[in-house]
Every structure is written in structure tokens, then in C-alpha cells.
Design goal:
By secondary structure, the protein is an alpha/beta fold. It has helices at residues 5-12, 16-23, 31-44, 50-57, 73-88, 102-114, 129-137, 161-174, 190-206, 223-234, 248-260, 279-282, 294-309; strands spanning 62-67, 92-97, 119-122, 142-145, 156-159, 180-184, 216-218, 242-245, 270-273, 288-291, 318-321, 324-326. It folds into three domains: 5-48, lambda repressor-like DNA-binding domains (434 Repressor (Amino-terminal Domain)), CATH 1.10.260.40; 60-159 and 294-321, Rossmann fold (3-Layer(aba) Sandwich), CATH 3.40.50.2300; 161-292, 3-Layer(aba) Sandwich (Rossmann fold), CATH 3.40.50. The strands form two sheets. The protein has a six-stranded parallel sheet with strand order 2-1-3-4-5-11, with helices on both faces. Strands 7-6-8-9-10-12 form a six-stranded mixed sheet, sandwiched between helices.
């Protein structure tokens, strides 16, 4: 039998309003009454109906999280930061995979809103005008995590991806490298085309090194695309001596592909990766990498969302967290 708040009130000989105050932690209940109500709740096995409470309060204490791929170490670390802060602020999470498919992303967005979530954290590599239009129409706040939206109208948390690429390429240049390849993520994503690639170009230009289009190889963040990228690089007449890679999984493909062809990292190629997920420590040599504070990006995005949901003061809606280059064994 489904136990209701009415059953608890009747058994405890109190009003339903008193039971509601006990369940919601309202301090305006006598300790003896609270104890009596809690004993009845435990004995009957009463579980408050979150949907009904949400309809009454217009809050469900539920947050939607739309993520491209939870199996990716990159997004998993972001999601962990989101979940920990959500738990701290007593929010539940509804997590959905979008597969970076715009139709699925927009469908999930509307599904989340249909579930009466109080807010949404959104992650996606290619945020288009259709996304922004839907974000603006949303009746609840939306915050982007690890995702670029060019207008700056949607709150977001990221690092400075352009500066991060600039710093990594500059580190190569300081060691005397002039032929520097870049295995980059999909060009149609602004984070790659407008940020990371620009940082790469600017570092070369700053050092008076010519930009060569053939040294930029596009991948799709996967291990296999890293293997394919190193094959293309090894076919070049003038082979690079250093390679910046746009994701850790692709970097593993680059390193393994080079070894399979008889090359050594870092002796023949120095390699810098981009995310600092656990993969960078699980390969040999361990990867030098741009350190993105992935957990913090997720955590700060969730905290920013709580501010909007609770109508707290927000000083900055675009948050840029610090990054650094961590030297390990894939560079000399």
C-alpha cells in the first residue's frame, strides 16, 4: 500500500502541515512532536513524493545535466564535479547522454524542462544559434561547462583554450622546435577552430615560424583518430619534431602509433596532450599535458547554477579557470 502524508498525520495525531514541516526540516516544530512524527514515518515507511512537493513549492530540487558521452574520461570528470556540488546543495541529478547530436541535444533539453528541473548544466562541443535560442527561452537557468558559446550571453565555465594552446606550442618553441604538428579535434567546433587553432597559429607567428596547413591534422577525439593522425604525419616529407594533441585519448593513439612504426617518444617526437585525465598517467611514457581543472569546471558550473536557481548575486557569468602545462616523460 502507498503510504501518504495523510496516513502519517493520522497515525501521529498531528496535522498534515506539521508532517510537512517535519519532512522539510522546518525548525518551527516542537522536539517532542518532531520525534513522534519521525517515529511514525520510520514505522510506516513513508517516502515523501518529490513530484508532489515540487508542484507545491514550484521547486523539484532536481538539476538536468546534458553531457556528450559519460564514458569519456574528460566528461566523466566534469560530471563528478557537478554531482558533488549538487549533493552539497541537496540537488538531485538527471543525467543524459546527447552523443553530440543537435537534434538529440534539443530533445533532451525539452525533456528536462518537461520534468520540471530547477536548472540545467549543458556540455556540448558545437553550440549553434538553435541552442542559444532554446537556452534563452528556458524558464530555468542554464550554465555551460567546458563549452564555448561565442556571444557570451549564456553563463559558462571554461579555461582560456586559446592561451592554453599558445602556452603549449610556446613550450615546444622554447626547446628549439620549429616543425610542430597539431592533432586537433573537429574543425566545426568553435573550441577547436576559433580557440585552440588560433592559439597554435599565434604562438608560431610570435616566434616567426611559418604556419603550415599540412601540419594540422583533424581527429574526432578518439584513440583511433590519433592512430590515423600519426600515420598521416609520418607520411609528410618533412616530419615534425613535436606534436600538440587536442585530447588525451587521441594522444594515446599518436604515441602508440609512433611506437608501432618504430619511432620513440620523446626522442623522435615530443608530445603534449590537452586534458590531464587519468589516461595521461596510464600510458608510457606518461604524457606532458595542458592541465585543465576538469573537476573544478564541473563544480564551479554547478555552483554558478545554484546561484541562479536561488537568485543569489552573480558577479561574473563567464568564468575562466586557470590552466598550466604539466611536464612529464613525453617531452624532454
Amino acid at each position: 500500500m502507498n503510504i501518504t502524508i495523510y496516513d502519517v498525520a493520522r497515525e501521529a495525531n498531528v496535522s498534515m502541515a506539521t508532517v510537512s514541516r517535519v519532512v522539510n526540516g522546518n525548525p518551527n516544530v516542537k522536539p517532542a512532536t518532531r520525534k513522534k512524527v519521525m517515529e511514525v514515518i520510520d514505522r510506516l515507511g513513508y517516502r515523501p513524493n518529490a513530484v508532489a512537493r515540487g508542484l507545491a513549492s514550484k521547486k523539484t530540487t532536481t538539476v538536468g545535466v546534458i553531457i556528450p558521452d559519460i564514458s569519456s574520461p574528460f566528461f566523466a570528470e566534469l560530471a563528478r564535479g557537478i554531482e558533488d556540488i549538487a549533493t552539497m546543495y541537496k540537488y538531485n541529478i538527471i543525467l543524459s547522454n546527447s552523443d553530440q547530436n543537435i537534434e538529440k541535444e534539443l530533445h533532451l533539453l525539452n525533456t528536462m524542462l518537461g520534468k520540471q528541473v530547477d536548472g540545467i548544466v549543458f556540455m556540448g562541443g558545437n553550440i549553434k544559434a538553435e541552442h542559444v535560442e532554446e537556452f534563452k527561452k528556458s524558464p530555468v537557468p542554464i550554465v555551460l561547462a567546458g563549452s564555448i558559446e561565442e556571444s557570451g550571453e549564456i553563463p559558462s565555465v571554461n579555461i582560456d583554450y586559446e592561451q592554453a594552446s599558445f602556452d603549449a606550442v610556446s613550450a615546444f618553441i622554447e626547446k628549439g622546435h620549429k616543425e610542430i604538428a597539431f592533432v586537433i579535434g573537429p574543425h566545426h567546433e568553435p573550441i577547436n577552430k576559433d580557440k585552440k587553432l588560433e592559439g597554435y597559429k599565434n604562438a608560431l607567428s610570435n616566434a616567426g615560424i611559418e604556419y603550415k596547413e599540412e601540419l594540422v591534422v583533424e581527429g574526432d577525439y578518439t584513440y583511433d583518430s590519433g592512430l590515423e593522425a600519426i600515420e598521416r604525419i609520418l607520411e609528410l616529407d618533412t616530419k615534425p619534431t613535436a606534436i600538440l594533441v587536442g585530447s588525451d585519448e587521441m594522444a594515446l593513439g599518436v604515441v602508440h602509433g609512433a611506437f608501432d612504426r618504430g619511432y620513440s617518444v620523446p626522442d623522435d617526437f615530443e608530445v603534449i596532450s590537452s586534458d590531464n585525465t587519468r589516461l595521461t598517467l596510464m600510458v608510457r611514457p606518461q604524457l606532458t599535458t595542458i592541465v585543465q581543472p576538469l573537476y573544478d569546471i564541473g563544480a564551479v558550473a554547478m555552483r554558478l547554477l545554484t546561484k541562479y536557481m536561488n537568485k543569489e548575486k552573480v558577479d561574473e557569468n563567464i568564468v575562466v579557470l586557470p590552466h598550466r602545462v604539466e611536464n612529464r616523460k613525453s617531452t624532454k
